[in-house]
């Protein structure tokens, strides 16, 4: 991978993986009870390639023979999965970067829409995780997802308590949303790429086992295989944005609720490689989507100090024409720990003539809006840089925030909320009321229904 420096390549240690258990016919013969003494940790529920699948990751004490088991909650026998529960073996497993545990990946498939499921992961030797539940929701119609900028657990060094701050923002977002399809973390999940304790804190909220998540790889995640081990992403490319022997990477994509999500590893500076990936995915799957969203870590249109970094400037030259020719509707990024919304932008990276900062944004084909998400934990914030041509709305209150994106056939509506600390120090309470700081609705030109009161002429 040409863009990663020698410094990056020396920042983590990994050993060759233990071969994954891959017997497709394997299934536990007896009903698996919840095992509070199981040696399973860091269970993560994630998006699958589409609405019919969900991906799982977890850590175990012993290698191989792991599996995920699942059933509809209506089929539970008390609190336990039935004997005939579905099961699937690990698709990948190996020795963790901490050299003490083993990572495991597996997938649930054939899921039905509008159905609540229960699942657990583990093995006969290590025991199984507690039974957790999730709802697949509707696969069409109106839906929503949540977006978070840099949790970066560990960056605050305990002051502020960013692990509690992350839990607090996530909890507040889930209270504000209405059955979100998943939540999307835009990179720097942890501060130190190989720190397993920081991953445990990032994954500590119960929602990481009950609400699917998608992740972006940030500059604080890339320098270890821990990111790839903890997150089982769908449709990962081995030719675009890939990692190395001791680094994580890989561009990937998925479809959910009629939205095509494309995610690139912006730590890889080979912009032609990313452009090829985006072009190929849209060519093959764009017709399946009502909207297209692109995500990567390094914001190209922030209003904070990273906007002038050479790698960000390189991306700012490369991304707009790719986004335009593929009619990407929304781009979401983090990295600069400040909230910013651009005007509608054109293929040349310029604000569309006549574009304003209002709620209603009607886009022509090839026009794109860019959102920069601030810290979701309160770990750290950056200084505001005024006077940038692309700034439609910027908020720099040094308060954690999240964005709620509501999806319909007619629009994408992105509403951003701050989660103030209240009376105590930042991150001291488990939950807090959120306060709206921005709202924008993207529609397509020509998609509006005709006005029934309009004069249609005389016969």
UniProtKB/TrEMBL annotation:
InterPro entries: Calcineurin-like_PHP (IPR004843), Metallo-depent_PP-like (IPR029052), PAPs_N (IPR015914), Purple_acid_Pase-like_N (IPR008963). Residues 45-136 form the Purple acid phosphatase N-terminal domain. Residues 66-75, 441-451 have a biased composition (Basic and acidic residues). Residues 145-338 form the Calcineurin-like phosphoesterase domain. Keywords: Signal. Residues 1-22 form the signal peptide. The keyword Signal applies. Residues 15-97, 416-459 are annotated as: Disordered. One of its GO terms (molecular function) is metal ion binding. This is Calcineurin-like phosphoesterase. It comes from Brevibacterium marinum.
